[in-house]
Write a structure and sequence with these properties.
With 744 residues, the protein is an alpha/beta fold. Helix content is 42%, strand content 17%. The structure holds zinc ion (ZN). Zinc ion (ZN) binds next to helix 10. Zinc ion binds next to helix 10.
């Protein structure tokens, strides 16, 4: 759903957080991590979680698996997936669902289609018109591109600029330009003495998810909001535009949902429970996450008609975009007529789920997630990920034919209606929550898989070591070196959170934190399952537009589809390792230090007394967890060095060895769960994870409950949230493997 708008911002926000702590503190924290994590290089040959003996068998399957994924196949899959628009709940979406089901079957898997009935939204009529100063129709379709027949669509819905869940409306109001429409931007307008009350706000895209822009506008008394794609952000100012390059042409516009899923994701009518056939449903008027004011997206061509006529003060510094005009704030003379006829209806959506049953621990679930619904063709978002999932399924199916059986169950979850409110994954997660909390090992999410060559990942800290080892085993197609080798070079370009890991060269790699905007949310933030979200990123200016199509991908995104295939290798390799390792390759020794760093950052917003008395002890506790979990990581290292006795105590026979393994794994799985609080974050009970939640912008918010209480200067609530966090850290400590805990 969100990759360009959110992931990059997450990375930036983390670097900002790091900047608070100062370069020195950051380097010290990193050095601390490095000393506890650097072991001799020869052990790296055996990945985390395996012994040399067990890895001998695994290595043969891994080698075989890595041979299979093919760029040519991914290209064929993508051509099929992008043949027709497939907005969730439409006939095109149903056809794509069937194609995925059939391909899973052809690969030898045993898929099922899981249906939910959810509230979706579609446009019937969209009209935006300049009515004063001049009469100009502004809701124009995206122009056809010569040589790309997919840009001449027959579906009338594709011609309309619309956002999902915008309410119907008919109003004529003056327009105010509000820059990105953030709280700071509205603050600037106040200083200029420009009122937005009852007016139409014209905002440019970027610097936050459109739902956050709508909520901010609603709070300010704005009557309606227009969002447009300025060439400074994703168009000509960045580079050549489609069809000559990957950036957005002036005529493209960005569709998307406008909904408050950072408050509660999933079907707006069933917050917190599954939208099965017979489920209880709220009346639409009680659905808290639906926006109250209308929103329409416009192209830069159409927005320019408004912008060039605006009166009022000059736009403040930093507010001018890439159009050849003097940006002004407006507010009086220019009026726009918005007329939206939208239809909300409860309608079926279809997840496709395939399970490869585990042979030893069939109840344990290693989940691979992707969605298949798109705003138009969605060649990048999400069809690249879907093509990659189909190729991964084919390769796993081939292994099954050759006799492979995973130790744990591998689940391929292909979700529907992600673009609305992460709907398909959320409903499924809510329906099977109890099972997931007990048995889900990890959620490996790939929304879009490739729009370029830069490996980019957001993850909980405990997954980073396994991820680094897997990227060391997969070749980067362009350079011929490993994905890891190219990934670690990015640290110079973007300073973000970074770690080294056991057995690898001690070079850190950048990764983002999980906020919002894709299907990992229900797993991590509701059920406490460790999660990651990854992509090969690149210049991509056609997000959620008509031009995110097959030809764009074939020419610019991933010519040859080599990065689709590389992602299939990486994704499958991670799945194999999590499914087959003796001990789960979860390393919690980084996490405590990470939390301590977030807590440290609260010094900026907490009163000094509160920081000293309440937050300092939490930092101590985080460090204690870090040290204790470090001993569990050393047990993992002992195992891969061939010392099962050091890893698991002294199992004398097979049954006791199996019992020791099971209890160690249960302890590791309990770690992420321990960070949940069943009461949720105040005001957002669906979000139970005390360390990570999404902001309205979709950025990751660390320590959401505690941070929000401090920001609201509500010290009583902050004290409660600190106590909840202390209890969570205690639970994590208590749940560590027995031997590890005793030796602390
Ligand atoms: Zn997506």
């Amino acid at each position: 759903m969100h990759h360009r708008t959110a992931l990059v911002v997450i990375l930036l926000s983390i670097s900002a957080e790091y900047a608070w702590r100062g370069g020195e503190a950051a380097r010290a924290a990193l050095a601390d991590t490095l000393t506890t994590h650097t072991v001799s290089a020869d052990r790296a040959a055996v990945p985390l979680g395996f012994s040399p003996q067990s890895y001998a068998a695994e290595a043969r399957w891994e080698k075989r698996f890595l041979e299979i994924p093919s760029g040519g196949r991914c290209r064929k899959y993508l051509r099929r997936l992008t043949r027709q628009p497939h907005v969730a709940g439409t006939p095109g979406d149903r056809a794509v669902t069937q194609f995925i089901y059939d391909e899973f079957k052809r690969s030898g898997l045993n898929p099922e289609i899981v249906e939910y009935r959810v509230l979706l939204s579609y446009p019937k009529k969209i009209s935006v018109e300049l009515v004063e100063q001049a009469r100009v129709k502004l809701s124009n379709p995206e122009p056809e591109i010569r040589g790309d027949r997919d840009t001449r669509p027959s579906d009338p819905m594709v011609a309309m600029p619309w956002t999902g869940y915008a309410p119907s409306a008919d109003l004529t109001r003056p327009v105010v330009y509000v820059n990105y429409g953030t709280a700071e931007d509205y603050g600037q307008l106040e200083k200029l003495g420009v009122s937005v009350k009852g007016k139409i706000a014209l905002a440019r895209y970027f610097h936050g998810y459109r739902g956050g822009k709508a909520l901010e506008a609603e709070r300010r008394g704005v009557a309606g909001i227009i969002v447009y794609s300025d060439p400074a952000e994703d168009g000509a100012q960045r580079g050549p535009v489609y069809p000559d390059g990957p950036w957005g042409p002036l005529g493209h516009f960005q569709r998307g949902a406008v909904v408050y899923d950072f408050v509660t994701p999933g079907d707006p009518l069933t917050p917190g429970w599954a939208s099965t056939e017979s489920a209880r449903r709220l009346p639409e008027s009680e659905a808290a996450i639906l926006p109250k004011i209308p929103m329409v997206p416009l192209s830069a061509v159409d927005a320019q008609e408004i912008l060039k006529r605006l009166d009022g003060p000059d736009a403040p510094k930093g507010w001018s975009g890439g159009l050849p005009l003097a940006y002004r704030v407006g507010g009086e003379a220019v009026k726009v007529h918005l007329a939206l006829e939208m239809e909300n209806r409860v309608t079926p959506i279809w997840n496709v789920i395939a399970k490869i049953p585990g042979s030893v621990e069939p109840e344990k679930l290693v989940i691979l997630g992707n969605h298949h619904d798109a705003w138009v063709y969605g060649a990048v978002d999400p069809s690249s990920g879907t093509a990659t999932m189909l190729e991964t399924a084919r390769a796993l199916g081939q292994l099954l034919k050759e006799g492979f059986r995973p130790r744990r169950t591998i689940v391929l979850g292909n979700w529907d209606a992600e673009e609305y409110t992460l709907t398909g994954s959320t409903e499924w997660g809510e329906q099977f929550e109890a099972d997931l909390r007990k048995h889900a090992v990890v959620c490996l999410n790939v929304d879009a898989s490739a729009s370029g060559q830069d490996f980019s990942v957001s993850a909980v800290p405990s997954l980073v070591p396994a991820l680094i080892e897997a990227t060391q085993a997969v070749r980067d197609p362009a350079s011929g070196r490993s994905v890891y080798d190219r990934w670690k070079e990015q640290k110079a370009a973007r300073s973000v959170r970074s770690y080294a890991v056991p057995g690898s060269v001690a070079a850190p790699v950048p990764f983002g934190l999980l906020g919002g905007g894709s299907d990992y949310m229900v797993f991590l933030q509701h059920a406490g399952v460790p999660a990651l979200d990854m992509i090969f990123d690149g210049p991509y200016g056609v997000y959620h537009s008509l031009y995110d199509d097959f030809r764009w991908m074939d020419r610019f995104g991933d010519p040859g589809f080599r990065y689709h295939a590389a992602m299939s290798r990486l994704w499958g390799l991670l799945a194999l390792r999590f499914a087959n390792a003796d001990l789960l390759p979860l390393d919690y020794s980084i996490y405590g230090g990470e939390i301590a760093a977030y807590l440290d950052g609260l010094e900026k917003i907490a009163p000094p007394d509160f920081f000293a008395q309440t937050i300092r002890p939490l930092i101590e506790k985080s460090r204690e967890w870090q040290r204790a979990a470090g001993r569990a990581t050393r047990a993992l290292d002992a195992l891969r060095a061939g010392d099962a006795v050091a890893a698991l105590g002294e199992p004398r026979d097979e049954p006791s060895q199996a019992a020791a393994t099971a209890s160690f794994n249960a302890a590791l799985m309990a770690q992420e769960r321990a960070l949940l609080d069943g009461r949720g974050i105040p005001g957002r009970p669906w979000f139970r994870h005390l360390i990570y939640a999404p902001l309205p912008s979709y950025d990751a918010e660390t320590l959401p409950g505690l941070r929000e209480a401090l920001e609201a200067k509500d010290l009583a609530r902050a004290r409660e949230q600190a106590a909840a966090l202390a209890a969570a850290l205690d639970r994590a400590l208590q749940a560590l493997p027995a031997g590890v805990k005793a030796s602390r």
